[in-house]
Design a protein that fits this description.
By secondary structure, this protein is of the alpha+beta class. The protein is about 30% helix and about 20% strand. The strands form 2 sheets. An 8-stranded mixed β-sheet has the order 2-1-3-4-5-6-7-8, with helices on both faces. The N and C termini lie far apart (about 60 Å). The relative contact order is 0.12. The N terminus is likely disordered. It binds 2,6-di-O-phosphono-beta-D-fructofuranose. The site of 2,6-di-O-phosphono-beta-D-fructofuranose (FDP) has 13 residues, from helix 7. The site of 2,6-di-O-phosphono-beta-D-fructofuranose has 13 residues, from helix 7.
């Protein structure tokens, strides 16, 4: 019979999990552990706001003053400020950068600068906010390159290969935090009753057999021949393999999360729709590299069509990149089609 009594000895909070991971690194100082825990707090605070999302209509519109006398902000602006405020005074970071800010975010002079660098996309999938569809926060943590004092732009422009940890929070039917510090990918679900993230998905591996592909098919007319042929392949049009199902939420975190658990590929290829963005829409530092790191840690892979996203040296904070992330076999197939049809190799 199904045993409904929970086994409390098996409940692992995110704090316990991070601490246990730290124990396997005797040289660890605990700063990264604290930083990851700060990000779990970020998740709880943003989740409490996103679940009130629709109430903005009642409590006041963007720019107006709400009943508590506070200015009502758009959720993405609010999330951006919250992450900055929760992290600028802890002494753990040398510098930050956000998808929402043009330049690097320095640590205020009156606080100690730390040894890590935090890059984040405060609210990914923000075009879905108004429709009660899952959205997320992505984070990437590097060790600073500069020796001391205030961190700088160069500290932020590091290859994904140098990531120390990365992860995301997904605000969906439940709130989850999924992260890796280089020893596999682990997922935690927020138990709203106790206000804690509990380990629900230990050591996630992307299934070998892919199930879904995710792409904005509406842009097909703007794709290169290689991309079109690759998507035909995913649909099974060549008759060699059975086609995959298409799922596209349009919130990268949610699309990535589903494919991580079910197996598949998310792609946002280069397209000719907007000449201003020849490399597609997604950003290497805030979206591509951290999710590529998680994919690799779960047995998957990533590419910009030629090479792993983790091997690209970023030249600017907001650099965009074509992006293919998911099951290794499919990412390699994408590269193959692009090599043959677009690069003529
Ligand atoms: P959004 O602009 O809503 O923040 O980060 C960009 C992103 O969402 C991804 O989360 C999402 O997958 C993609 O853009 C959706 O773009 P399209 O509407 O062009 O498909």
């Amino acid at each position: 019979m199904f045993n409904q009594t929970p086994d409390h000895t098996k409940i692992i909070t995110i704090e316990r999990h991070i601490l246990e991971e730290q124990r396997s690194y005797p040289e660890a100082t605990g700063v990264l552990t604290q930083l990851l825990y700060d990000l779990a707090l970020v998740g709880k605070v943003i989740a409490s706001q996103t679940t009130r999302g629709g109430l903005a209509e009642i409590l006041g519109r963007e720019g107006s003053i709400n009943i508590q006398g506070e200015e009502v902000m758009k959720l993405d602006v609010l999330a951006d400020r919250m992450i900055k405020r929760l992290n600028d005074h802890t002494g753990r970071l040398a510098v930050m950068a956000s998808e929402e800010q043009e330049d690097i975010i320095p640590i205020p002079e009156n606080y100690k600068a730390g040894k890590y660098v935090l890059l984040y996309d405060p609210l990914d999938g923000s075009s879905n906010i108004d429709y009660n569809v899952s959205i997320g926060t992505i984070f990437a943590i590097y060790r600073r390159k500069s020796k001391e004092g205030a961190g700088n732009l160069e500290d932020c422009l590091q290859k994904g290969r140098h990531l120390v940890a990365a992860g995301y929070l997904i605000y969906g039917a439940s709130t989850m935090l999924v992260y890796s510090s280089g020893t596999g990918v682990h997922g935690f679900t927020l138990d709203p009753g106790v206000g804690e993230f509990l380990l629900t998905h230990a050591n996630i591996r992307m299934p070998e057999k892919p199930k879904y592909y995710s792409v904005n098919q509406g842009y097909e007319q703007y794709w290169s021949t290689g991309v079109k042929r690759f998507v035909d392949y995913l649909q099974g049009k060549d008759g060699v393999k059975k086609g995959l199902s298409l799922r596209y939420i349009g919130s990268m975190v949610a699309d990535f999360h589903r494919n991580l658990l079910a197996g598949g590929i998310y792609l946002y290829p280069a397209n000719t729709k907007d000449p201003k963005y020849p490399h597609g829409k997604l950003r290497l530092l805030y979206e591509g590299a951290p999710l590529a790191f998680l994919a690799e840690q779960a047995g998957g892979a990533s590419s910009d069509g030629r090479q792993s996203l983790l091997d690209i040296q970023p030249r600017g904070l907001h650099q965009r990149t074509p992006l293919y992330i998911g099951s290794r076999e499919l990412v390699e197939k994408a590269e193959e089609f692009i090599r043959e049809y677009d690069l003529g190799e």
